[in-house]
Amino acid sequence: MAEVQGLVNELATKLRKRKVEGSRETARLTAELFRTVISQQRVTSAALVEVVRDVGQKLIAANPVELAVGNIVRRVLRIIRDSDLSLEVGGLTLVPQGDDGDIVEEDDKPFLLSDAISQTILHQPSLVAQLESKPNLVRHFEGKADKTPRSWQFKHQIIEGVNDLIEDINTCHEQIADQALELIHQNEVILTLGHSRTVKKFLYAAKEKKRSFQVYVAEGAPKHLGHVLAKELAEKHLQTTVISDSSVFAIISRVNMVIVGVHAVMANGGVIAPVGMNMVALAAKKYAVPFVVVAGTHKLCPLFPNNPEVLLNDMRCPSELLSFGEFSDCMDYSIGSGAPLLNVVNPAFDYVPPELVSLFVTEIGGYHPSYIYRLISDYYSSEDLVLQQKPAS
Amino acid sequence: MWRRSASFILDNRTPNDVASASRPESLALSPPLQSSAMADADANSAYYQTRAAHHGVVTSDWLAQAQAAVGRNPDDLGSVVASEAEPKPASDSGKPFSVIEEFNNWRKQPDLAEAVAAIRALASVIMSSEATTMMELEIELKKASDSLKSWDKTSISLTAGCDLFMRFVTRTTALEYEDFNSAKSRLIERAEKFGEISTKARRIIAVLSQDFIFDGCTILVHGFSRVVLEVLKTAAQSKKLFRVFCTEGRPDRTGLRLSNELAKLDVPVKLLIDSAVAYTMDEVDMVFVGADGVVESGGIINMMGTYQIALVAHSMNKPVYVAAESYKFARLYPLDQKDMAPALRPIDFGVPIPSKVEVERSARDYTPPQYLTLLFTDLGVLTPSVVSDELIQLYL
């Protein structure tokens, strides 16, 4: 138990100190931590949900801007709820009289219910659920601790679910890259910004399948990670051009498609992306260039962005922009009234509204921003949106 | 530079004196119009009458109607009701039960939405029914629902509410119940629960929208929606600093009533004439409207002027938020503005108009989904594309 606590604290510290790079890595570490936590727990589902919520809140508080943490927490909660419900239903032999032949596979599939039923009964408030009375799951939770073979099954299912999740996270780049051939055609000119591993693998896959295309890489100030990407692409014999962020508008008319990676995808279809992306998206819209976002489903966040430029942003160190030595007299807080005359703002992220995005390429396929709500209802349960509240409501 | 300053508070210009010099005739009651207007008044939609009844807007036409009604044979009203009662099956012997009457009783409560009043009326049909099988009960309900819908063909939330309840009835009868009485009591219980939804829904919507109202923001509101009022009330009570622009909302004068309510909450309010929306749109941070109905495409049907405001807001990149309860989702798909049952209302220009001049008297318009940003409903925050999903799940 204490060992688990230690692991949780370790991850929380890493998150707080921003030692974990990238949402995929964060998601993977979080999911693995939860696997450990769950395997050490007693099996009542109510207790499990509570534990996962607590751990989740701690991790989210360590780095609120890293939305992948919250996403994984909610995914795990949904896995728990699904396993519980499927066992409940299986136990009562009230299996849906569905026309789908394989209704009850032995213990392998945690999702025994058809989508429609599980959605209406369990997860979303919907018009249909307003008419039916939703079964009170909290009640069901309590009476379960005694059945030992069932509880073993329950835990087994959850661990399997989390393993699947980790597997998905690890293989998301490959599955996304499989779709590269459909998007990238011969003699295309592609624009990207910054350094996204997903985009890199995406372009590699197209190159391997003998597509010939060129890439413009906007450097992505102030970190200039675009330089790194450009070098890697050039090593794979791709014709690459590095441009500065400010020349995107000048170049965009010569570009066929913009392919970018993002930090998070919000529930309305908008994206949180490295700074400078909004400019690229606006330029693409103006010149009718498709703006394609490649993102794994672990980046899908069920929250709606309100004031994302401020609330979902990370203000980084100003020294990335200005060297302190040259401007120190303007930035010194001890002169004059104590308020510096020169302010330096270095936001890490940009918000791109859904109207500017043409397509989302995820490991489960390509979707329009207006479809994101469906993916969210598939992966998350609406009760988990606000993690602070108690489940019994 | 990331903070918004509430400049309207720091601004120390003296506020304009309340224009007492506004034309007195537009505010006071003008004398009843000529008989030609009376004929038009008959063509008024019940939709408008509902609005007027709720908002207590006294216009000259209403006054004329009221005077005429008092002068009319008082039995007239009674006969209207009785004639509705006639086609009902003679299963209720004794006093004739009229669903329309029941509906009107419920509707009089100012806080109750139309759809919920309809559902309550249908619930009372079940209670007073003497049917002995589910089939019979269903038929009775269908008749009652049809008569309610035909009584006011223009009201969308009424139709949607009736449809929702009928849908529920059909779904319930699909399940096996051992005896008729338990099924009946379940229907009644469900209908009662539905009644609670009205007030609960508004609370849920108010809570959901709080995140989107930030300190120092300016909200433009059109029309008088009780849901939007609840949203603003909640924001004011949680001590958020914001101000509201109300459009006048001619000819219903919804803006005047709304500004009254907001002034009571100590929220800074500014009244605009409807044409001043584009002029002030750059100062506005978001637009909030209610809806009379939410259609399948994700668009909304609301008071005349909403489409205009949404267009202006869209062209200036301002978000348009809609606050609507879920029972307003209707199975309609208007392709253009004229694709709905027309709801007409009298418009009083204050001066007599030559009879050959036509007046556009439609009371509502359709706003397509691409101009709406988000819908706040009791099902959660939705993007317009979710609406058709919900409707499909329910009806198909």
UniProtKB/TrEMBL annotation, chain A:
One of its GO terms (cellular component) is eukaryotic translation initiation factor 2B complex. It comes from the Eukaryota. The keyword Cell inner membrane does not apply. Pfam families: IF-2B (PF01008). The keyword Protein biosynthesis applies. It is found in: Cytoplasm, Cytosol. Keywords: Cytoplasm, Initiation factor, Protein biosynthesis. Its main location: cytoplasm. One of its GO terms (molecular function) is translation initiation factor activity. InterPro entries: eIF2B_beta_subunit, IF-2B-related, IF_2B-like_C, NagB/RpiA_transferase-like. Belongs to the eIF-2B alpha/beta/delta subunits family. Component of the translation initiation factor 2B (eIF2B) complex which is a heterodecamer of two sets of five different subunits: alpha, beta, gamma, delta and epsilon. Subunits alpha, beta and delta comprise a regulatory subcomplex and subunits epsilon and gamma comprise a catalytic subcomplex. Within the complex, the hexameric regulatory complex resides at the center, with the two heterodimeric catalytic subcomplexes bound on opposite sides. This is Translation initiation factor eIF2B subunit beta. It comes from Rubus argutus (Southern blackberry). The lineage of its organism: Eukaryota, Viridiplantae, Streptophyta, Embryophyta, Tracheophyta.
TrEMBL record, chain B:
It comes from the Eukaryota. GO terms for cellular component: cytosol; eukaryotic translation initiation factor 2B complex. Its main location: cytoplasm. It is found in: Cytoplasm, Cytosol. Residues 24-34 have a biased composition (Low complexity). One of its GO terms (molecular function) is translation initiation factor activity. Residues 13-34, 74-96 are annotated as: Disordered. Keywords: Cytoplasm, Initiation factor, Protein biosynthesis. PANTHER family: TRANSLATION INITIATION FACTOR EIF-2B SUBUNIT ALPHA (PTHR45860). Belongs to the eIF-2B alpha/beta/delta subunits family. Component of the translation initiation factor 2B (eIF2B) complex which is a heterodecamer of two sets of five different subunits: alpha, beta, gamma, delta and epsilon. Subunits alpha, beta and delta comprise a regulatory subcomplex and subunits epsilon and gamma comprise a catalytic subcomplex. Within the complex, the hexameric regulatory complex resides at the center, with the two heterodimeric catalytic subcomplexes bound on opposite sides. This is Translation initiation factor eIF2B subunit alpha.
